[in-house]
Each structure stands twice: as C-alpha cells, then as structure tokens.
Design a protein that fits this description.
Elements (H helix, E strand, L loop, with lengths): L1 E4 L2 E4 L7 H9 L9 H9 L2 E7 L2 E10 L4 E9 L8 H10 L8 E5 L4 H6 L3 E2 L3 E3 L3
Parallel strand pairs: 5-6
Antiparallel strand pairs: 1-2, 2-3, 3-4, 4-5, 6-8, 7-8
C-alpha cells in the first residue's frame, strides 16, 4: 500500500526498503545502533515493514511483528533526525496502528521515549511496555 501526505509517502512494500538507509537510521537510535546489517535483513524478512520517503530518499522506517491473529508488536519506529518535529513519526505510527490487518488486535511496543505520542494513539502501560486494548 501507498499512503501520501504532502511531499511524503509511506509504503508497506518490502521491495521499497532501502537497506542502507534503514541501517543509517537505526544507527541514530539508542536501541539498534549496534545492530548488524545481517540482523537488520533478518528483522525485515520476518516483519511487515513501513518505509517513509521524501522524494527518493527513505527518511523513516518502522516494522510490525505479528501473527495476524491476535497480536502485533511495533518495532524500530524511527525518523531521520533532520525530519523530526514535523508530525511524521505520528503519521507513520498512526498508519501502522490503523492497518486493517491488525487494527482490532492487541498491539504493543517497548520504548524509553515518545510516551506522549504513543499515549495519544491509544497506548498505555508501564515506563517501557505500552499496549493498546483490543
């Protein structure tokens, strides 16, 4: 699927992923900055991935690990540092949360930051583990 907002696009098609860009993005994170390229490839192969683009450049990434029946785990939600503060993380997360493949399923994530964003999207929980009610 393709989602558009002004000059930005989100794709959930694995073939759109720019692996080098994802690695660069994840190096900006506190949770995956040491992840190997092989581990990144494996995580992509075993997830439904969402890629955020401005023009031809991939500036955001996130993935969902799911069984498609009962649970969806949001992982690696990241926006390039120079594009943060524009609502793109919120849009990317909303797109993932509202995807019909798991819209009515239990969704959770583990995070040390952005609790305000996730709370506005229906998540609640402890300091790190946040989930939505089914």
């Amino acid at each position: 699927m393709k989602y558009e907002k002004e000059e930005f696009r989100i794709y959930d098609e694995r073939e759109m992923i720019q692996l080098d860009s994802v690695q660069t993005l994840l190096k900006q994170s506190y949770w995956a900055n040491q992840r190997s390229i092989d581990d990144i490839k494996t995580s992509i192969d075993n997830s439904v991935c969402f890629s955020l683009f401005k023009g031809e450049a991939q500036i955001g990434f996130a993935r969902v690990v799911t069984d498609f029946a009962s649970v969806a785990y949001l992982a690696d939600v990241i926006i390039d540092k120079q594009y943060r503060g524009q609502g793109l993380g919120k849009w990317l997360t909303e797109t993932m949360v509202n995807d019909p493949r798991w819209k009515d399923k239990f969704k959770f994530l583990v995070t040390d930051d952005a609790h305000g964003l996730y709370t506005r999207l229906g998540f609640s929980g402890s300091e790190k583990l946040m989930s939505t009610k089914v």
